[in-house]
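Deliverable D4.2, example record:
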Amino acid sequence: MTNQAHYTQNFSPRIDTLAQRLRPIFARIADGAIDREENRILAHEAVKWLQDAGFGALRVPVCYGGYGASLPETFALLAELAEADSNLPQIFRAHFAFVEGRLHEGDNPQAVYWLEQVAQGILFGAAMAELTNSTGTTTTLTRFLHGKKSKWVLDGTKYYSTGTLYASWIVAIATDGTDRIQVAVPVDAPGVTRVDDWDGFGQRLTGSGTTHFKNVVIPDENIINRTPLSEFPTNEYFTTYYQLFHLATLAGIGRAIVRDSVAFVRPRKRTFGIPGQVAQRHDPLVQGVIGRLSALSFSADTLVEKVAWGLEATFPQWVTSQEHGPAFDKAQVQAYQAQQIVAGQVLEAANLLFEVGGASATSISRRLDRHWRNARTLASHNPLVQRQRELGDLVLNGTAFGSRWREKASAVTPSTSTDVKQEHAA
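Output generated by the structure prediction step:
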């Protein structure tokens, strides 16, 4: 993999141990990336290789059976994985975020239980987004009487359920009255249906399809947390964390562009406008393009590393259940400043790549177009223009991120619904 030294120079020797274990798997994943892309082969095999190696437990503390990797170590490895195949980090995004949420809860027995389960190999996918005319959640968690006992029942449909096709568990968001509930649902629970219908032109193998929940029984122990709908749905730590996944994946795509452009150029013996055989690698124009690509990749790597260390600075507070403060604010701002630059630079590289090869670089067998398509899809997840405006409002007026959302949500009266309904006919 390219540019590894840049990421490893500031880490303890542990990163080398982790990398030595994982890099052979990353190489195997890279070998099959074009075939999976060309034939739309879901990455079940690659996910299993990673899970068997304990990749999903990178952030789980050693005392619970994981590797206890730091945030910079984790995102360095995720960037390497993205260089091999950019679908894979996104598949694991919800899973890693679930782990991060349990770390926030400290030694809470429920959190410890889930961390130990992750160390044993379970994998989480996400079921959060909905196709509605507003940002509300129509999926419900309702308590019903069942004889003398009561039970929770989950009903609703989720879209863009990233990673769920590969997962053993699903993290779902639902409402109970005016509360927002996060629940853990086994993928094989009665009433759960996963559909492979993600139709994006990039990141086509992330398992981001539709998930249906119909009368799915949820035991009390699978309710992860409950917050009022009037509260902002996430916090500065998680917005930074989620954005870092996209940034690290984009940085990995940048590396893959350098790798593939070099592999394309080195053997070529023909240069446009010059008769006979000329080694293209010695063409000053081609050298200039490759040099630019390497600089763009380096810049993306550097910004991702900077944001990862910024988030790491908040972690001692995070594991004591703190969520707000100057360090969290700073990390979030840096993540969205980096987003403005990294997305543009990697997209520039994905386009510039084709200047080294002419029409032959567009061969389907090479699938060099996947780099632009994947980067463009990733860059579309969080609207750049919206974050740019918010950054400007912050710098000019001191307006905090999410202020507009909080103003509208303040009209919602938070409460905890404890009503128990009679068992429904179904």
